[in-house]
Amino acid sequence: MKENAVKTKLKNKQPVFGVLSNSPDPTIAEMCGVFGLDYYMIDSEHSPISPGQALDIVRACELGGITPLARIRSNDPKLILQFIDAGVMGIMMPGIKTAEDLQALVRAVKYPPAGDRGLGFVRMASYLQGPFDQKEYIEFANEQMLVLPQIETKEAVDNLDELLTVPGIDGFVVGPRDLALSLGYIEGPGHEDVKRTIARVVEKINQAGLVAGTTAASGDQAKALIDRGVLFCLNSIAGLLKTSITEFTKKRVI
Amino acid sequence: MKENAVKTKLKNKQPVFGVLSNSPDPTIAEMCGVFGLDYYMIDSEHSPISPGQALDIVRACELGGITPLARIRSNDPKLILQFIDAGVMGIMMPGIKTAEDLQALVRAVKYPPAGDRGLGFVRMASYLQGPFDQKEYIEFANEQMLVLPQIETKEAVDNLDELLTVPGIDGFVVGPRDLALSLGYIEGPGHEDVKRTIARVVEKINQAGLVAGTTAASGDQAKALIDRGVLFCLNSIAGLLKTSITEFTKKRVI
Amino acid sequence: MKENAVKTKLKNKQPVFGVLSNSPDPTIAEMCGVFGLDYYMIDSEHSPISPGQALDIVRACELGGITPLARIRSNDPKLILQFIDAGVMGIMMPGIKTAEDLQALVRAVKYPPAGDRGLGFVRMASYLQGPFDQKEYIEFANEQMLVLPQIETKEAVDNLDELLTVPGIDGFVVGPRDLALSLGYIEGPGHEDVKRTIARVVEKINQAGLVAGTTAASGDQAKALIDRGVLFCLNSIAGLLKTSITEFTKKRVI
Amino acid sequence: MKENAVKTKLKNKQPVFGVLSNSPDPTIAEMCGVFGLDYYMIDSEHSPISPGQALDIVRACELGGITPLARIRSNDPKLILQFIDAGVMGIMMPGIKTAEDLQALVRAVKYPPAGDRGLGFVRMASYLQGPFDQKEYIEFANEQMLVLPQIETKEAVDNLDELLTVPGIDGFVVGPRDLALSLGYIEGPGHEDVKRTIARVVEKINQAGLVAGTTAASGDQAKALIDRGVLFCLNSIAGLLKTSITEFTKKRVI
Amino acid sequence: MKENAVKTKLKNKQPVFGVLSNSPDPTIAEMCGVFGLDYYMIDSEHSPISPGQALDIVRACELGGITPLARIRSNDPKLILQFIDAGVMGIMMPGIKTAEDLQALVRAVKYPPAGDRGLGFVRMASYLQGPFDQKEYIEFANEQMLVLPQIETKEAVDNLDELLTVPGIDGFVVGPRDLALSLGYIEGPGHEDVKRTIARVVEKINQAGLVAGTTAASGDQAKALIDRGVLFCLNSIAGLLKTSITEFTKKRVI
Amino acid sequence: MKENAVKTKLKNKQPVFGVLSNSPDPTIAEMCGVFGLDYYMIDSEHSPISPGQALDIVRACELGGITPLARIRSNDPKLILQFIDAGVMGIMMPGIKTAEDLQALVRAVKYPPAGDRGLGFVRMASYLQGPFDQKEYIEFANEQMLVLPQIETKEAVDNLDELLTVPGIDGFVVGPRDLALSLGYIEGPGHEDVKRTIARVVEKINQAGLVAGTTAASGDQAKALIDRGVLFCLNSIAGLLKTSITEFTKKRVI
Ligand SMILES: [Mg+2]
Ligand SMILES: [Mg+2]
Ligand SMILES: [Mg+2]
Ligand SMILES: [Mg+2]
Ligand SMILES: [Mg+2]
Ligand SMILES: [Mg+2]
């Protein structure tokens, strides 16, 4: 296991740029690293990427110089385990509502005594053949993993003060579309009330000394977010393709 | 089998925009269609996409409204067959050097009497359950398939006049990097001699009433090519990702 | 997202014919559509078809003109999400026993305000690039999805009156073999008591104005069921192959 | 390696019933065995089933009690090798025209001294751990493999007398659709001239003491063929599904 | 479904040797059988092998003469179902702590009346086409399945007396590494206190007339364990490769 | 592209130890590297590993610190291309008989001017984004690739003197089993005549200053070979598993 470069940048208050990916193809991940993204967020909530596919994606990320992360469909400790044993270096968890949810998430991601993660003879642990002994590996792994719950429901916003106090969390990623739905705005996240809520959430996260993240569909959007205190900027494969295909085919429009 | 929208556009002298893809993931193909590309060129020469993977990609293309094509590693009629039986609507063939090569290519792509393609009870033929009877299907398929040999060697350039006369060819796609190597320019296709050669090849193709195509890494490059008579503009997945990742991460540079 | 043709037929009291499939091969699904079935029920309970495989099957169904549905192993909202985000247009849920089970199922399948389904930038939503805006898509999706719990335990039969009142359910599919086991008949569903129970369940479902479905291994069985008020007729891949292989090899027996 | 039950039946002049399959799903193969087919012909000509997929299909065949065979896209000895090393017990080869083609096919399928097949430490050879020593295994394998070239061109019909004399061939499978095309009948194999040609070919094959095979879409067609001297009856997955789906949905038509 | 040879050996107090595998490749499983292991434990806890992959592995095990078992990530009855319907003949369950956990596990593995397992028309049941009728199959399956919970937490050790009394359990497999962590020994299972605890656990299991199992990285370790009453000896793919690669490359060291 | 550590060792006359693998599972490759093998020879002759699977295996090799090589089924330049574009750092080619075969092999593996390999925008070339410009990459790649034809026929032995003079070859790997068959020894490679022939071949290879390689099933066999001038020692996955399973189960025998 190597140092988590994204975690290090975030500690240094540097923005990080990544993509939420619905593609199981490792080559896409490797290219995203070669062309300069910081992290590759395997989507295993709204996309059906399995832990077995994640294993091949993680290898491509390690070679492409991009940090592999995963969004996992539910707060199931053993489903989380299969992704982190494969080498995913952080978890984005949707649907978090309470401090108990968060504590369960932290316990799933960390080895004892910080959590309940089981230890296998796995690649993430270099089959215990690497430079580390078991104790060093466990402490290093517990330190390097990123834990990033999502704020995407009214309940989570209401409980935010308490959520911010749970130990072991690196930050929170706001999901604008589901948050808007949860606040009753079916048309999408464009309503002023949604924007104000998100701004307040980001502010509180920052005041707690944690990382704020959210979605950005372009460099300009990312810039605006960074100016407002967001460090974790999340595009999508669809967003990247839309940007460049629009550029590539512009001659057609003229 | 449906009408080949790319072939129709090319007949109408409209430029078409597509991507040479090294990804076996059907979802990438479907998104490329949703976001506006005209064709998806499965690379089965420099990328190891198999005919079986092509089948799933073709389905995604049909649903995404993008024409599936394939570049195939060699002029092997039965390897070509597996791609076109899966539903690929045209073939880009590398390494063509002689009129004999071209005639063999046409024979592989077309059913009798125009060629030697065998007829199976396959999805491309709608298991012979569709609106067409066998004769109608055969004639329609022979008409709709695109045949696009590559010009990428000195020999092909030398033989161009003869190549242009082979019946059943829709056009030629110039491969600048390999053509430069073949002409002795190991540094890449930037040398003036290479550019002049390519310009002359494009001109001759157009004079013969055929479609000229080549690679373009951006909308500006595509525009410049179209202005010089190129109708078939070919980007790559790497090119698309590089464009948009550079845009997305621009804040980092500042 | 397109109209759910099976839902429309059922609203018009027309019988629908489909297959519970244990095959992950999309081509089998496409052929089932070409040859005239109404729906393809991906079995992800007794067969291990994953959501990622379902994605390719769904595409094949859309092209083959057959409605993709899925039976999912458990009432886990995020596992259901991965299938419906892939494009499955309805869920058959085994093991339902109480109204609470049913309400949870409906919440998993429907977007707010009818349920809790999260909204991603996914293919089912055409990456929000289609003819619909978000509000229209959400309302249309909530309307088109089929929700079909199974009745296969004594508890479900005992609770049937209450189950029939839960909003958002389209009908119920009886599972004769497990129901027989639950009623104590280990030899199979052939006992008169099982048959009487099933007849009563179908009658009650129909009286409640809902769709009744169950398994049928042949056209004759389907006919008999339809005569008794069943509209949703469910064969299996094994059943289809057994029928036709028996027919094909009949010369051997003589 | 076990005895080839299909070869044994054919030696005893018993008809065998099988399916040309375009599905890579091993479960379909296993079910075809359970429900009574004699052989499962993996189509790797008009369908893109790879040798790696064949390996899993072969295992399913061995467990389902059905003999695995393969049609391979071209007479390439090393492509053939990958299928037979996986455990396929016979090869159907399309496009055979001359005695030289046939001799090359036999050399590819048989170990020295009968042919040129290379010997690896592979599963077909039980990793040389089975009851056989190397010599016994080689002799047994050479004996058990089925070699079944296709007759599907005018050239093959013209050369039939010579083809029938090549040692190491078990029989010939007539491909009616391609043969019709080759004879100039684009509408399909229904023309009297095609039928007469096929009848003559079957007669000659039988006179040479070899097995004649061809396609049959139903038990009635198979019966008619068997009555005319055909022993190797070949349906398709599409044919099987069409038969049973038509039967299953018959109530709809009424 | 065939007799479970491992269960039979264990009943006869014979030691069994197997491997916990993190490889989804069926060929590895088949070779492990050919070279003499008794069982192949598919790891679906610390490795991401899916039920769909298990299906192909199970077939390879059946042909290689090795009993397929699976460790499953959590005590989810429907996840267990997908593995046992594929043909896995026993379950090793991690993280068991209470008698309630164990009872739930037994109910998931056994058909009524012993448990709640649902009955499908699946390969494990030979599509109900085999020599058994449904009642015989159910009774045979309930009898042949192995149920092997893991003891790997302090809680499980504390509750051992009660765990030993739950009906339907064949034995317990001690997980030394996680047990050490749970007991507070982060350096690994080498501490005397851990060894003493394991020894006591094994003794109690044997006194209850059940099978004791644990991990062994070599034949010498297995021998030592067998001498202390362990019958179920579990190596890993990593362990096997390390042993033989060390042997194979020994010349390098000299 | 990185330095080829195996080529460097061979230049320094150090023995290298590797495995001919019939497994498509990347994890097996990664573990072989972690436990100390020098190279991983993907078998795509007697095993059906595809170029697409090779891509994932290559990534695992790069991370496991083991050099990825491939044996390819035939001397087809474009099939070779797909493996080397994926990142395989050398080719072992079976069935080589003449100097022309060898020259074709070298041309397939090397870029111009040394050969005819085409240049794509591929991962092996780091998408031309790495530290190298195109010219540097081409020269480095041509230098680092290993070219290892097999000697496994009487013809190759007869032509050896000429084969040894073809430029661009690193060495030759003797295939004892096929060589024995070709020399007329059907029982296997144990005959004295075969041994003498192999010894003579190894001697000649060494005299020509090239690397000699062959198969070895254990460390003792490897040692004996190294003492006789063999540097390239090739075991198999089957060989490794047999060694360690025999060791692990030794208690059973007693
Ligand atoms: Mg554990
Ligand atoms: Mg044919
Ligand atoms: Mg969300
Ligand atoms: Mg050989
Ligand atoms: Mg059921
Ligand atoms: Mg090229």
Summarize the structure in words.
Chain A is built from 13 helices and eight strands. In chain A, helix 4 packs parallel to helix 5. Chain A is globular and about 50 Å long. In chain A, 63% of the residues are buried. The mean pLDDT of chain A is 96. Chain A has helices at 5-11, 26-34, 51-64, 77-86, 99-109, 134-144, 154-158, 160-163, 176-182, 192-207, 219-227, 237-248, 250-253; strands spanning 16-21, 39-44, 67-72, 90-93, 146-151, 171-174, 211-215, 232-236. Chain A has one domain: Alpha-Beta Barrel (TIM Barrel). With 254 residues, chain A is of the alpha/beta class. Chain A has an eight-stranded parallel beta barrel with strand order 1-2-3-4-5-6-7-8, surrounded by eight helices. Chains B and F meet through helix 9 of B and helix 3, helix 4 and helix 6 of F. The complex binds magnesium ion (6 copies). Residues 94, 152, 175, 178 of chain A line the site of one magnesium ion.
